[in-house]
Amino acid sequence: VAAVSEPVLEEGWIEDELAREFPDLRLAWVTVAAGPRRTPPELRDRLGMLADRFHGARALSIRREAVPAAYRVFFRHIGLDPDVHRTPIEAAAVARLLRGGFVSGSALEDALVLALMETGVPVWALDAGRVDGPLGLRVARSGERLGDGDDLPAGRIVVADRAGPLAVLFGATAADRLPGRDTERLALFAVGAPGVPALHFEEALHCCAGALEA
Amino acid sequence: VQLTARRVDEQAARAQLRTQIARLEAQLGALPHRPIYAAARSGGPHVLTLGELERVRDSLAARVSDARSASHAVGERQAAARELLERMLREPRRHKFVRVKARDLGEPGCGAWHVRPRLGLIGMLAGWWQVKLSSGCPLAC
Fold it and tell me: In this complex, do A139 and B14 lie within 8 Å of one another by their Cβ atoms?
């Protein structure tokens, strides 16, 4: 029997201003060795079974489940209207109903969807080779940019490393930090809204990492 | 010292508003009939000021109120339909050809209660009326 080793989950930092306002806000990440590849059959089957169990009635009531509800509330707290800017799980639920399934063909995209649908917690991926130091959450400062893109408005909540903002919280990721063809290691990170149980939050990262390493 | 005290007060007020927003969001999610609103332009994620949190709270409170009104109106329509069905069952002759759909009663499916004459034309002439429940949705649905 092969030994199963779980990837080490690292706790991210939360800037003081944010930590004062949202004491239970969390960010954590894991690093996994995984390059670009097509969805393996096992992951395809798992997503197929997940899609079979996911019906319209659940899509309508998902906002009442504890974890999706916590993200809806957090969206409101940070100025996003979840009825306009859908929470990740609600967006995935709508996509499932429109497309009739979850499978995209890319192992990474499918592993992210699997973790989201299994736990309700969204996970994002960065090219670990292009991340400088530990990840954390802070507000953007005046004149900061998202990678090579446009200026970020001061005060925007961002995921950042030592070098600067990597992604807007629940929004766009810097194009130059996204996993690409030459990616060898991935930094998978999740943001836990206040009220999301630690078990769900940590399981999301383990589930995603496990699906990629399988 | 005053500045710090004011900052702490504002922080406490913001925390209280967030609690109210969470409670309103839970109430809105629990209501079966949520009115649809035109999509408003949503700013990016940021720490909301006291004023912004108040606006979010007030807007949510208005939505909860609208959703409650909508649920109440639907409840009244369903109650009226149930009363009509009871009258139909009690006195079918007084409700000739009246139809009540399952959806009007808040029940799923495409069934409908319909007052029809027993044995067609003979029943019409003899005054033999009955309430029939049609079966589910047609295959075309």
Answer: no
Beta-carbon separation of A171 and B44 below 8 A? yes
Structure tokens at A64: 């009442």
- Name the token pair of B71: 């649920």
Query: What is the C-alpha end-to-end distance of chain B, expressed in Å?
Result: 70
- Between chains, do A79 and B18 touch, taking CB under 8 Å as contact? no
A171 touches chain B (CB under 8 A): yes
Cβ neighbours of residue A65 under 8 Å, at least 6 residues apart?
A120
> From the CA of B63, how many Å to the nearest CA of chain A?
12
Whole-angstrom distance, CA of residue B114 vs CA of residue B97: 6
Q: Please write the tens of the pLDDT for every residue from A119-154.
A: 999 999 999 999 998 999 999 999 999 987 778 999
**With an 8 Å Cβ cutoff, is A56 touching chain B?**
no
pLDDT in tens, A39-51: 888 999 999 999 9
Residue B13, token pair as written in the block: 């007020």
| Chain center to CA of B59 | 19
This prediction has a pTM of 0.82
Contact yes or no for B48 and A18 at CB 8 A: no
